[in-house]
Design brief:
Blueprint (H helix, E strand, L loop, with lengths): L13 H17 L35 H11 L17 H24 L3 H4 L6 E2 L2 E2 L10 H18 L6 H19 L10 H17 L9 H4 L3 H22 L5 H40 L5 H8 L3 H10 L14
Antiparallel strand pairs: 1-2
Helix pairs in contact: 1-2, 3-9, 5-6, 5-7, 6-7, 10-12, 11-12
Length: 339
């Protein structure tokens, strides 16, 4: 109530930036989801005839500053060392800044490669990491398991594994992994609680959320990536400048007959990716055709195109192209009503 706080889209202010820092500190302390949209819900001076509306009640005249809140939260957080602000480094020239940004990027890539090569705790000692039937169970206390968190993290790990193997991230596979981990946590750590699986609508939302995390490369939603935290704004701008200059030089080599080796080497990964994509699409067509043949063999009639599109997570036009390629003629006309 001292200074107005503006939080409009596309605008910022020192107050909102300070609030963002406080929100990040609270998320780090309480294990909050960084992907959650933190927005103001109501204006403190709201007035209406709604008895359940929010009303402002002034309890005292003491001013509580966000800076003091951030200081207290960092004191409570045992990992507060990583949240200390670093002083911006000074560089003598733009070239020195670009070299430093490039070195930081290479160091981050090397660290990521080393982390991917090292075995995880679950691989070294499954029992010590809480692995039960391939599921890492997270415990609230000695007898009670965190069923929802265990199921979500197992679904996220399964989705990352499917993407690494080049398999499609279907909702059914993610939901099956979620349900299996939930049942394992329920079996070993129910603590006299009845099973309380979320409804299918929430599980579908969870699957889409997991797919978004996997596409963005997020392995832990509660922590940010190390590469982004180790790079400053000036370093990112320097890398962008270097990338634009490199792009201009690469564009010149594309039309230079003296750089045929460079052009062939650049086109080779693209040709291989296109070949794999074409083979994958062809395999999907065969699977769709086999699905229609198997359904007709078991039930005596073909399934609907909409059902096949939902089964393989493709469009109805893709299903029709697969049927045309397999020379499958569906019966025409409206189906008789079942009474």
């Amino acid at each position: 109530m001292i200074d107005p706080v503006y939080a409009a889209k596309g605008h910022t202010s020192p107050n909102t930036r300070l609030l963002n820092v406080a929100t990040a500190e609270l998320n780090a302390l309480l294990g909050g989801d960084r992907a959650f949209a933190h927005q103001f819900s109501r204006w403190p001076l709201h007035r209406s005839n709604d008895p359940t509306a929010y009303h402002w009640h002034c309890q005292h005249s003491q001013i509580i500053r966000l800076a003091d809140l951030i200081h207290e939260v960092r004191t409570m957080n045992p990992q507060n060392a990583q949240h200390q602000a670093r002083k911006p480094e000074q560089y003598a020239s733009g070239r020195e800044r670009i070299d430093a940004a490039q070195a930081a990027r290479k160091a981050a890539q090397t660290l990521k490669e080393l982390e991917s090569e090292l075995p995880t705790t679950a691989e070294l000692a499954p029992a010590a990491s809480g692995m039960i039937d391939g599921v890492r169970v997270i415990w609230i206390n000695q007898h009670r398991a965190a069923r929802d968190e265990t199921a979500f993290r197992h679904a996220l790990a399964t989705a990352h594994r499917l993407r690494a193997q080049g398999q499609p991230l279907k909702d059914t596979k993610i939901i099956d992994a979620y349900e299996r981990a939930y049942n394992v946590a329920q079996a070993v750590g129910a603590d006299y609680r009845e099973p309380d699986l979320p409804p299918m609508r929430d599980r579908l939302t969870m699957a889409r959320r997991v797919r978004g995390y996997v596409i963005q490369g997020i392995t832990n939603p509660n922590t940010s990536s190390k590469t982004s935290s180790n790079q400053t704004s000036s370093g990112r701008k320097a890398l962008a400048t270097m990338g634009r200059r490199g792009g201009k030089q690469a564009a010149k080599r594309w039309h230079d007959p003296a750089h045929k080796d460079y052009q062939e080497a650049a086109r080779k990964p693209l040709a291989e990716a296109n070949q794999r994509r074409e083979i994958g699409a062809r395999g999907t067509k065969f699977e769709i055709a086999a699905y229609f043949h198997k359904h007709f063999f078991e039930t005596g009639k073909y399934p609907r195109i909409a059902d096949a599109a939902a089964e393989f997570s493709v469009s109805e036009r893709t299903v029709r192209r697969a049927l045309k390629a397999a020379d499958i003629q569906l019966p025409r006309g409206r189906k008789p009503s079942q009474k």
